[in-house]
Amino acid sequence: MEINKIGEVRSKYKEPVGPDEMRKTKSIIEVEAEYVDGLDQIEDYEYLQILFYFHKSEGYDLISKRRRGPERGLFTSRSPRRPTPIGITTVELLKREGNKLHVYGLDAIDGTPVIDIKPYASFMDQPTLSLQKKTPRYRINKLIKYQNQHDLLLKAGELHGHYCPYLALGVLAAADVLKRFGAENDGMEDLLAVVETNSCFSDGIQYTAGTTFGNNSLIYRDFGKTAVTFVKRGDSTKNLRYYFKDSDLIEREYPEAAELFEKVVADRNGSREEEEKMKELWQETAFKIIEADPDKLFKIEADVEIELPDYAPIFDNKQCSRCGEKLMAPKAVQKDDKVLCKECAESSYYQLDGSGIVEK
Ligand SMILES: [Zn+2]
Ligand SMILES: [Zn+2]
């Protein structure tokens, strides 16, 4: 077996500090002259996997206490102390200058020997991708199973576009109910969420429970309460309503975030800096709330009486005689002897928007 040093790390860290801290810095990988040609077109890649040798590591224990949690086996950890002390980290490639790769996120100290560099490719390196094609909610179901609310919130942000306390509350309620129901939602309308608000809360629920608008499994009641009832069709034991009872939580525990929210969002009167600061505080607050015990934040009631709509019917199409566009038959308007869409007929309709359901 032969292992070659192909380069060395340049970092401001001369001694190891925690990996989380080290990953927040830029460092440079200096590739040795004889290997530089191997970097040809590496700029095409945003992320690289860096394999390096923990040159200061000595010895190992097969079972030991980890940084987080109780004792466990060495191969369940990323400890530098191992029989073959090799580290692997995915880093962001910032730029290449000759034999130097400027990278972000490398948790290796100054002088660490680099033994290999590979491009990161999500289709190969993200092992759940093929499973996800078969079961779209594969990753989410796993996160719910292991009650990893932190990562659920992280992913919910992809849908919602920002992190905020109410998004976190929605994630928290949905992750809790799916654990209690022991259910994996396949997006076929069996699990329904009856939400009583159209705020950020509902996005946390849509993402986490998979009860979405497009699946007809998100039912909206125009009550304006931070509350949701989860119901499983055909199983009357699976029925729980969550009402956010600790409604002054944010003003009480996160006053600075609440104050900036008033100014920036409610009064639309904040400066650019205040808006940035608010986003930062809102994000911090969201990631604190997600750690909370749902029983403390919500009034959780079982067996609430709730009337459910039927499965969404599949309608025939009709064609509007004026614009020529097709529409679901029951939505068509008959005017004189013509079939029209509501828009062409200038008839009234309902709209769901920030104000709730409004008649237009
Ligand atoms: Zn939000
Ligand atoms: Zn029309």
UniProtKB/TrEMBL annotation:
Domain TsaA-like: 3-129
Pfam families attached to this UniProt entry: FmdE, TrmO_N, zf-dskA_traR
InterPro entries referenced in this protein's UniProt entry, alphabetically: FmdEsu_dom, TrmO-like_N, tRNA_methyltr_O, YaeB-like_sf, YaeB_N_sf, Znf_DskA_TraR
Keywords: Metal-binding, S-adenosyl-L-methionine, Zinc, Zinc-finger
UniProt name for this protein: Formylmethanofuran dehydrogenase subunit E
GO molecular function terms noted in the UniProt entry: zinc ion binding
PANTHER family: DEHYDROGENASE, DEHYDROGENASE-RELATED
Superkingdom in the source lineage: Bacteria
Signal peptide: none
Organism: Halanaerobium congolense
Similarity annotation: Belongs to the tRNA methyltransferase O family.
